[in-house]
Design a protein that fits this description.
The chain is α/β, with parallel strands linked by helices and 453 residues long. The protein has 15 helices and 14 strands. Helix 2 packs parallel to helix 3 and helix 10 packs antiparallel against helix 11. It is elongated. It binds heme C (4 copies). One heme C binds next to helix 9 and helix 12.
Length: 453
């Protein structure tokens, strides 16, 4: 009598159980698979608000990055920079960085990490820029050398799709040749372990913005399992794939604002899964954003009326050996013409003699980030100065390559052989200007015949 009853109960239980099981199994993917998160990233912008225009077919510039992002960025998503946005340590580089930070804000960046070149700025300058930037500049690594207190917020949290994403910014001290005055840089492990436990507790996912080498990123992934994504870095080229190392995905890029990286990932059963990854080259066909072109014009206008350290020819030359003064001065290409008529004729017919006119066409004749290679001896005591305007030291002149000629000229004019001889030149001398983004790939055998004299 009891058996059918028990069987019925068991059957009901099995049904309910099956239903519960069905319910569970149908919910399982939802509860254990997190929504996809997409991160766009750049690194090593190196002052490239817009491309310099030194040859046709140049890639990149934030002007192009912005157009590309406007047309392609999915929302919601994150947009971050890993550092190296500034081009150098001069006062005009800092001024330009201010405009770049403004561009990042217009572009909708949510966090900016501080890279190696930023880590070479003096503490006071960095503090001012960190205070000025609308987008948070992060660094868990950079601290005041005296107080050992962070000088920038180490991390930030962003709500996206109802989840909290923690972004932690670090800079490998070994990437920085000499830290700026008043700065100290913590080791990566120290910088990360100070903040990671808190972030891991507070956030659904933690992303590390790491200005560090590829092998360091790998090491960090093995050391700190709480990092969902590591975005770098201090690398030679962009990552070909998003690599899974331990519990993290690793991606990176570089290259003077010529690329934008994009990675999407989620979590399945606790493990990070890459959904998609690509590096977009910002080809010339990508239009340049007019608002950022205007911002770059604003920078050029501002810099043309701002007095800079480089405008003072008597400023300390840090490379000068005390007590040893170079006596030769720049005199200008016209002074060579009287004795070197054939060389002068060839030079006049070459593009080198038009290099300053080129800058004038671009409203860039007072932009110190341009004139170094389009004039004679800029930045040295007797070389071109911005206050000269159009003068005898404009263009890539004879002395841009051969060096200052005053002694040579005065000796020969006095009818005696100079005690000093110009040193022999070769491809290396051309490459002081013909390199990287400033020139088509330099090749002596194809370039020299155009200017041979
Ligand atoms: C590092 C040296 C260097 C700097 C800095 C530099 N240039 Fe140039 N520029 C060159 C060289 C070299 C060429 C010739 C490249 C070639 O023939 O492939 C060139 C060529 C050009 C040309 C093309 C001329 C033509 O008609 O073909 C333009 C325009 C130009 N530069 C503008 C600029 C501007 C604007 C800046 C500043 C944002 C700048 N340059 C900064 C080295 C430099
Ligand atoms: C008053 C005449 C005179 C003037 C001006 C002059 N040179 Fe010369 N230069 C000579 C003579 C003479 C020689 C040796 C013979 C030769 O090679 O033609 C010479 C040789 C050279 C050499 C070969 C290497 C060397 O040191 O002998 C270079 C390079 C050179 N000149 C560059 C210049 C440049 C650059 C200027 C302008 C800044 C200049 N010269 C102005 C007369 C002059
Ligand atoms: C001081 C910087 C500088 C140095 C050094 C320099 N160049 Fe240039 N070069 C330029 C600039 C700037 C231009 C572009 C000028 C313009 O068109 O406005 C240029 C343009 C050229 C072009 C013209 C491209 C064309 O076909 O019209 C050739 C060729 C060239 N350089 C060869 C050389 C060679 C060879 C050397 C070394 C012997 C050399 N350059 C060293 C700055 C430099
Ligand atoms: C773009 C770089 C560049 C410019 C600009 C340039 N030269 Fe030269 N010049 C060279 C190179 C490279 C050589 C060949 C290698 C060498 O002799 O050092 C050379 C060779 C010479 C020589 C022959 C040296 C010898 O020993 O025979 C003279 C003279 C000379 N240049 C004068 C001039 C004068 C004058 C001007 C300006 C009108 C000028 N150069 C502009 C790079 C340049």
């Amino acid at each position: 009598m009891q058996k059918p009853f028990v069987a019925a109960i068991l059957a009901v239980l099995a049904l309910v159980g099956g239903g519960v099981f069905l319910l569970l199994s149908s919910r399982k993917p939802e509860t254990l698979t997190s929504p996809e998160l997409t991160v766009y990233f750049t690194c090593d912008t190196q002052g490239r608000l817009e491309p310099c225009g030194c040859f046709t077919g140049q890639l990149g510039g934030l002007t192009r990055a912005r157009s590309w992002l406007t047309n392609n960025r999915q929302s919601p998503s994150l947009l971050v920079d890993i550092g190296g946005a500034i081009a150098g340590e001069q006062d005009y580089h800092v001024i330009q960085w201010g405009y770049i930070l403004e561009a990042y804000e217009k572009m909708g960046y949510q966090a900016l990490n501080l890279g190696a070149r930023e880590g070479m700025l003096p503490l006071a300058t960095l503090r001012e820029m960190i205070g000025q930037s609308e987008v948070p500049l992060l660094s868990a690594s950079l601290v005041d050398a005296n107080s050992r207190e962070p000088i920038a917020p180490p991390h930030t949290q962003i709500e996206i799709d109802g989840r909290t994403i923690g972004l932690l910014g670090v800079l490998d001290p070994r990437s920085v040749p000499t830290p700026g005055e008043g700065l100290a840089i913590l080791s990566l492990d120290d910088a990360i372990s100070r903040h990671l436990p808190f972030l891991a507790e507070e956030c659904d996912e933690v992303i590390l913005l790491a200005f560090a080498t590829e092998s360091e990123m790998d090491r960090l992934a093995n050391e700190f399992y709480e990092l969902a994504l590591i975005v770098g870095g201090d690398v030679k080229q962009a990552s070909q794939t998003a690599r899974q190392v331990n519990q993290s995905l690793i991606v990176y890029t570089t290259n003077q604002a010529r690329t934008v990286g994009r990675v999407s990932f989620n979590r399945q059963d606790g493990r990070i899964r890459q959904a998609s990854y690509d590096i977009h080259m910002l080809y010339p066909k990508v239009p340049q954003d007019p608002e950022l072109i205007a911002l770059s014009q604003e920078f050029k206008k501002f810099i043309s009326t701002t007095r800079l350290d480089i405008d003072n020819p008597h400023r300390m030359d840090e490379n000068a050996i005390p007590g040893v003064a170079t006596t030769a001065e720049y005199v200008g290409s016209e002074s060579c013409a009287q004795c070197h008529m054939e060389e002068t004729r060839i030079w006049k017919n070459s593009r080198h003699s038009q290099a300053f006119a080129t800058l004038i066409h671009r409203d860039s004749q007072a932009d110190p980030t341009c004139i170094g290679c389009h004039t004679v001896g800029f930045g040295t005591p007797t070389g071109y100065q911005r206050a000269f305007g159009d003068s005898k030291l404009t263009d890539v002149g004879c002395e841009s390559c051969h060096g200052p000629g005053s002694e040579h000229v005065s000796s020969w004019q006095a009818g005696r052989k100079p005690s000093f001889q110009f040193r022999p030149l070769g491809p290396g001398d051309c490459k002081s200007c013909h390199y990287g983004e400033f020139s088509r790939p330099f090749d002596w055998d194809t370039f020299w015949p155009h200017i041979a004299h």
